[in-house]
Specification:
Layout lengths: L4 E6 L2 E6 L7 E2 L3 H18 L28 H15 L2 H11 L1 H19 L3 E7 L13 E7 L2 E7 L1 H4 L10 E5 L3 E2 L7 E3 L3 E4 L2 E5 L8
Parallel strand pairs: 1-3, 6-9
Antiparallel strand pairs: 1-2, 4-5, 4-7, 5-6, 7-10, 8-9, 10-11
Length: 220
């Protein structure tokens, strides 16, 4: 199993992230939680092969996440066992139960099916053709100054990408029905989001690259 994952946690929500080159890091967590949360992240990879990548910090959900295949580090058997135990504990919490219920629902199954359609593109980091369906989407009860979302249709399914306010400025020229070409390193599930969340790592329109995510020193 590949390593290099990190976790963002806020307001009881969880997002697992995949970093390509460096050791995993936990954001905004105390030292005691860092170890257990890291193990919890990796358990998702071990048990389910699911994923989310280093992106903006608003995607912090009970996201099951599938790792991009390039992370190099292997976990020990002891770490895998501890991670699975942490995962089981989380699944027994009210939030974990809600997520499991969502997975089994028609909405959850639809999101999983949409993931299956683009898995190969994410694994290969290859270009996907998409049609913009919304540039003004905002999650219910989300703060007005929160992250920005770009909603697109790929192969007949809806997907959502998150950006910081500053990062979204380079996409401000996009309109509904515009055709774009994008690349994504990762994606994640959440019962608090209507579509599969994919990382918008490179976005081009009219033969011009509008956005390209910078990879920091931790490989994210």
């Amino acid at each position: 199993m590949d390593g290099g994952q990190s976790l963002l946690v806020k307001d009881g929500l969880r997002s697992i992230t995949t970093c390509r080159n460096k050791k995993p890091t936990i954001i905004k967590e105390n030292k005691i939680m860092k170890r257990s949360l890291l193990l919890l992240i990796v358990s998702v990879f071990a048990a389910n092969g699911l994923f989310y990548s280093c992106s903006n910090s608003e995607v912090k959900t009970e996201a099951k996440i599938e790792a991009n295949a390039n992370a190099p580090k292997q976990m020990t058997e002891a770490e895998k066992k501890a991670a699975l135990e942490e995962r089981k504990k989380w699944e027994a919490t009210p939030e974990g139960k809600r997520f499991k219920d969502w997975e089994a629902s028609p909405a959850g199954k639809k999101v999983h099916a949409s993931h299956d359609k683009i898995k190969k593109y994410i694994k290969d980091y290859s270009e996907m053709e998409a049609i913009v369906t919304s540039v003004t989407f905002q999650r219910e009860n989300a703060p007005a100054n929160g992250p920005k979302w770009l909603i697109v249709k790929i192969l007949g399914e809806q997907y959502m990408m998150q950006f910081s306010k500053k990062g979204f400025e380079s996409l401000s020229s996009l309109k509904v029905n515009d055709k774009i070409f994008l690349r994504s390193r990762s994606a994640g599930y959440s019962h608090n989001h209507p579509y599969l969340i994919i990382s918008g790592d490179s976005i081009a329109h009219d033969n011009k690259v509008l956005f390209k995510r910078e990879i920091n020193k931790n490989g994210c």
